[in-house]
Amino acid sequence: MTFNQDQPPSKSIVSSGKSRGLLWIVIAGVVVMVLLGVTITTLFVQGYSPGGRFSSTGPGAVSISEIQSTIDQSTLLKSQPTATETEPLISGEELVTPKPTEKSAYLIQPKEVVAGAPKNRQSWTATPLPTKTPTSTPSPVPTFVSDDSYSSSLRPHTIANGEKWIDVNLTSQTLVAFEGNAPVFQSLVSSGTAKHPTVTGQFRIWLRFASQDMNGRRLGYDYFLKDVPYVQYFYQDYALHGTFWHNNFGTPMSHGCVNLPTSSAEWLFNWANNGTLVNIHK
Fold first, then answer.
1. pTM for the full model?
2. Residue 260 is part of a domain; what is its CATH number?
3. What is the domain extent for residue 269?
4. Which class for 52: exposed (0-12), middle (13-18), buried (19 or more C-beta within 10 A)?
5. Do the domain assignments include residue 276?
6. Coil, helix or strand for 20?
7. Cβ count near 173 (within 10 Å)
8. Total domains present in the chain
């Protein structure tokens, strides 16, 4: 039997071809669904296996303590008052936390302090420790200051035998150094004038300077003497000292001090001491 090539295929042949194509589509769909199911199952199983996201171990694990901390923080945030429930800060205030110094990383961290607070705001200050009150230095006082009738060159009864003491006679304008009853040195002096007399009485040397500037302007006098030599104070600002600005010894010349030639003042300075008695009389 022969067929005509121009004649179309029969209906049975077309129907058979369509059925085969539909079958392949179904088979492919089944395969895709199986593969998808296997993939989902594998991912789900790996998620609960060691090292998975929901595992209790492994690098990506979430521990029970983290879950509990998350729950606690959520609860704490819910319990915090809203912005409308809190009191506003005082205008101009700003919370400042001082940074620790670089000297040590283990210093106690300071508490938060309020910067820009009003001046009348209370604050804590360190209680000052009590300081010692300096005791007053007693002013040197003479053994006694005599009246004008006092005149004696005898050894005072308070001076022991052989003890050093100095006698100044304002009438004769002389000074004699004694050791007990024995005179060991003598010199002319210039005491205070009638306007500025030298005090009389018995005194003890209390302050000595090998050299000192004397500013009389501080006491109301019109003089300033630089580097006065061998100064020995015996009462307040009265002193025995060397003199280089005049050579008129034997005549009252001073504002109350006892002027001596510089060489005599040097000898007396080296011989006497603090506490040496000075007896001054007319």
1. 0.49
2. 2.40.440.10
3. 146-281
4. middle
5. yes
6. helix
7. 19
8. 1
